[in-house]
Amino acid sequence: MYNLVLLAARPPEWTHEQFIDWWRGDHAELTYRLPGLRAWRHTEIDQALEKRSEGWDGISVLSFDSPEDLKKALASQEWAEAVAQVGDMKGRRIAVMGHEAEMFTG
């Protein structure tokens, strides 16, 4: 799998609950439509392990078969619609991409 990993923080005027509801609701409806999307995992962050990790609300891992499939999704109308919905929301995010390696399953 090739993943797009997004770490996001809500806009300052939103509550954590509002942001998670939007992310898993209205925004999810657009995300599900991304061409080539194989899996999507979302984690609601409810606490930080240490002080330097505070201030984040959630993580999304969007999985594709290959870097090329992710590039197609990022060039799609569906991605453009998801980005437009975010608009000038004023939240923060970190977005990174890479190959997944399964390290352990229990």
Would you give an account of this structure?
Strands 2-3-1-4 form a four-stranded antiparallel beta sheet. It has 106 residues and is an alpha+beta fold. It has a single domain, classed as 2-Layer Sandwich (Alpha-Beta Plaits). It has helices at 16-24, 26-31, 67-74, 77-86, and strands at residues 2-9, 39-44, 58-64, 92-99. 11% of the residues are buried. The protein contains four helices and four strands, in the order βααββααβ. It is globular and about 35 Å long.
Radius of gyration computed on alpha carbons = 14 Å
Shape: globular
- Strand count, sense and closure of the main sheet? 4 strands, antiparallel
Portion in strands: 25-35%
The residue-averaged pLDDT reads 96
Number of helices: 4
- The H-and-E topology, N to C, reads as EHHEEHHE
Q: Any idea of the CATH topology? A: Alpha-Beta Plaits
CATH class: Alpha Beta
Total beta-strand segments: 4
Number of domains: 1
The low-confidence runs, each spanning 5 or more residues with pLDDT under 50, are none
Q: Strand pairing plus helix content: what structural class? A: alpha+beta
